[in-house]
Amino acid sequence: MRFLLAAALLALTACKQPSQPVQADSSHASAPLGLPTEVKAIPAGISIQGKLRQALRWQDKSGDNLLLLSQAEGDFQPSKDGSDDVRDAHVYAAHYLLSGDKPRRLWLLKDGVEQCMFDVAAEFDLAATHVADLDGDGVMETIVAYRQTCTSDVSPSNYKLILHAGKAKYGLRGTDRFGVTWRDADTGQLSGTPLLADCSRNSQQALLNSKKTGGFDELPLPGCYADEKDFAGAPPAFLSAMRQQWHSLMQQQEVEWHKNL
Q1: What single DSSP character describes residue 214?
Q2: What does DSSP assign to residue 217?
Q3: Which helix (H) or strand (E) element contains residue 204?
Q4: What are the Cα distances from residue 140, in Å, to 11, 58, 95, 134, 196?
Q5: What is the Cα Rg of the chain in Å?
Q6: 20 to 30 Å CA-CA from 160: which of 46, 91, 171, 239?
Q7: Domain span at residue 107?
Q8: Mean pLDDT, the chain, integer
Q9: Number of domains in the chain
Q10: d(Cα 249, Cα 70) in Å, to the nearest integer?
Q11: Predicted TM-score (pTM) of this structure
């Protein structure tokens, strides 16, 4: 059944666009903030790897900020051992400070899939982009999300939700909800792994023990992340915002996937 859904998934991912505007929250700011806006003109001195997908600019206590998200997907090339044709796919995110003579890069994120002989993808979930002053220090934090996969069937992709506070990086890493459920051709009933509202290890293990996971037998279960270890010692507002954002995104994915069944 999952193989029969391949065409539907490919069509869905090909046309996915951000379903909502960039989110920003300045309610906790300790200084006036300039909310992020989409920009097209990239300042001189900044090079972009791959195809630009999103560019946001805002003002906060640190100065004039620019966030760039881009993607690159290579053509098929012989593998390193020459046995198969393979492709690479990468995502790039970079945060620049523009308050000076020339742009200064604060951080760079690069991730992706290499040497894939199947269907390869590394792409941002633009609906997830979030810019907010979560800890009330007058400096915006950024949240971005992306999925990556190398597969020959319809199955969940690796999914990462990443928060940057200055150069500090925190993340929730797990799998998304695409390809997790299917509809019985005779009864029309949905089957598959339920979407958990709590991704704690205890909740995931309880669902796994119930044998109602639609064939998925490893943690993290689809729609959940592995752990919250990155947030040990981080301001509590960071983890709270990330949990909320993760579950909101998984719910959106669930709705989108069911529309195509």
Answers
A1: T
A2: -
A3: helix 201-209
A4: 35, 9, 11, 7, 30
A5: 20
A6: 46
A7: 3-259
A8: 88
A9: 1
A10: 20
A11: 0.86
